Amino acid sequence: MLRLICIKLPQELKHKASSLTHGHFLSTSSVKPIAELPNSKDPQPLTVSFLQNSCGLSLESAISASKKLYIDNTKNPNSVLDLLRTHGLTQTHIRNLISSRPLLLLADLDNTLKPNMELFEFLGFSSTSLAKMLIRYPAVLESDAYTAVEFFRAHGFGNEQISTLTMKRPEFYLYDAQKILKPKFEFFQIFGLLGEEDYSEVFSLQLLISKRLIKEDTSIFQAIRMSENKFVEKLVSKYQNELAVYLYLRNSMMKSIPGTAAEPSLVDLYPVTCCVLKLTFTIRFSNQLFSQSNQMLRLIFIKLPQQLRHKASQLSHGHLFSTSTLKPISKLSNSKDPQSLTVSFLQNSCGFSLESAISASKKLNIENLKNPNSVLDLLRTHGLTQTHIRNFISRRPVLLLADLENTLKPNMELFESLGFSSTSLAKMLSRDPRVLETDAYTVVDFFRANGFSDKQISTLTIKRPTLYLFNAHKIFKPKLEFLKSLGLSDLEITNLLCTRPSILQRSLEKQIIPCVQELRRILGVDENVIKAIKAAYGIIEANVENVLKPNMSMLISHGVPQSLALKLFFLRPNPLLMPTHRFSESVSEVMKLGFDPNNMLFVIAIPSVAMSKTLWEEKVEAYRGFGLSKDEIYSAFKRNPLFMAVSEKKIKKSMGFFVNKLKMKPSLISKSPVLLLHSLEKRIIPRCSVLQLLISKRLIKKDTNIVHVWTMSEKNFVEKLVYKYQNEVPDVVRAHQDKIEFQGFSIDLKM
To answer: Is the separation of the CB atoms in 587 and 593 below 8 Å?
Structure first.
């Protein structure tokens, strides 16, 4: 709360308070965050502070929003904001979005937000149209957007039409498409409103005027968006009085609906009612026969009372209704009641709750258990647990009915041949179970033909399972060819894509080519562009107009020479890829800390100060736990800002080795902060083993400076301490390869 008050202080008082606390990262190191002291009435300080400082909310709005969420760690919220900014949303967009739906900050980033944002980008949403849609319906970001898009694609919509449709009505992403939209599509089709080829025009005004049943100014949009009850009321029950056939069917169907003791409702019967209405139109317009669902019409007709059947036969000239091979209508399933066999199987074999089983049963109809049981056996044979299976089938129930011999088995065997463990396979399928039903062989063959090893393919597709869903030759091939045209080798391309597989899902025309063209304008030649890409693969996905260029301009406006800013592209370009809002705040903070804009350390410090205050304090406490003082931590950070970029886990592991095992003074580490940047396993410990061996053989002096040995380049170390002595002490090579365990030094070395 003190921080919240300080934010509102006049500038002169704020400056004075700042000087008393000696900088933000040293003011609270020994105090636990006040957010840890819950109060049911007061707003949560960390939450309110984050909403103000990172999301741009006013104090009043932040306090109001804090009642709807609780932030105890800013990692996920910061990642959510980064994702939104990466996709071109401005600070104003973000403020409006979070004001409307604060809980978005705590949403599942990897399994929901990222896939949805990538899907919207793939559909062709610009940053402006995306922002417009999300501000109207922010819940869209947390929806199962893939299922909605698949539904529209299955009904003939192109990507552009889907984006047009959902821009106008974002709430379509929130519906259960199979339950809400599909029956209405079919209902209009039965009316004769739409043919299969006309589904893609469903969002325009295409209503049947010739039937004179619906007004000219009614839109299909409105019909699809109606609630179920309203839809039935306006477009089904409205006509029941004039339909003797319907009245008969409604009364006679009562006993055929499982679990229905009372008379069925119109909602229960309207899928069948559609067919009755269609029959009635056939009777009324006998010269306009419809081609859809003729078998259903025959099923209905066979059950009509003799007098009605005779009348209908007369009107329709009797040529439509042959009944010699038809099954009784009692075998027609009811669309609302759960199918008992399906529900039972989902509960007993897949581990579903009753509620989940009933919900999933609306998406599939199990008539025979042979295939579903075989699917489960296949999954278990490949090491998937019951929990994995429940999760897969929950997300994609129709997997139980998939083609076992031609699709599922070959795909599972392929994944096994690629080296997938049962854990990694489960991880991939949990993210997108549709992968099991794809033509995975074609995708794998494509990658193999382009120089990817099986290990690289598995790495690539574990990170991005959706790659199996694409037409590799159509979507991926042009991107690989473009990267090769820049001068990247096959090895460099495989390394690039294994690190950033999302590049393959980026638009070549809208993202990759424009980004490279802008880099050419900034850096001059393709050789420099390649250097920049190698330094940070993510640069090829950067938002050039809204992120990269503004950040470059900001550096120069703060006194960083253009030559140094350009060097940053080749050394550490990642700071330039930060969202502009955070980049601006971080540059200002680095200026306050006294870094010289003419020194590369100024730029290197930017991502370190950009981390959340909570994370910063956690790292400070980790260093202090090994005896470093606040001043020593600050001094080490000034010498090398990457000292604070090291993870808390690595801080504890490395400091434990230096201080506890080697008995180094913590102050020595603060004077050589670069030690924390080296790998213990690959550099520090193997070099200690070499020194231990050479000292025991009295080949080097006891007063050798060990810090100097650690900081030598690999080339110098190998020449001076490995190759030089390998004939006298062959084990020195094994020691350098970390094949000899380091036991510790028997003497005190110079440090």
So the answer is: no
pTM passes above 0.70? no
Instruction: Look at the block and give the residue holding tokens 């859809």.
Output: 292
What's the CA angle centered on 208, arms 205 and 214, to 5 degrees?
Answer: 90
Task: Say if residues 599 and 559 touch (Cβ distance below 8 Å).
Answer: no
688-700 CB burial, b ≥16 within 10 A, e <16 = bbbbbbbbeeeeb
Tokens 């025959």 -> residue: 298
HSE, side-chain direction, 13 A CA sphere, residue 450 = 25
> Rounded distance, CA 273 to CA 267, Å?
10
Residues 691-725 have pLDDT tens digits of 888 888 888 877 778 888 898 999 999 998 899 88
Residues in the chain: 751
Q: How many whole angstroms from its chain centre is CA 413?
A: 27
Distance from C-alpha of 750 to C-alpha of 305, rounded to nearest angstrom: 106
Give residue 399's identity as a one-letter amino acid code.
L
Cα 304 from chain centroid (whole Å): 54
Q: Give 60: exposed, middle or buried? Use CB within 10 Å, 0-12, 13-18, 19+.
A: exposed
3-state helix, strand, coil in the chain (%, to 5): 70, 0, 30
Q: Please tell me the distance from the alpha carbon of residue 591 to that of residue 159, in angstroms, as a whole number.
A: 47
Separation between Cα atoms, residue 678 and residue 341, nearest integer Å: 60
Residue in this structure with the two tokens 């199987």, named with its chain if needed: 345
Q: What is the mean pLDDT of residues 237-242?
A: 51
Domain-wise residue ranges, the chain: 2-132, 187-331, 678-751
CA distances from 227 to 166, 171, 233, 338, 356 (A): 18, 13, 10, 21, 22
End-to-end CA distance of the chain: 45
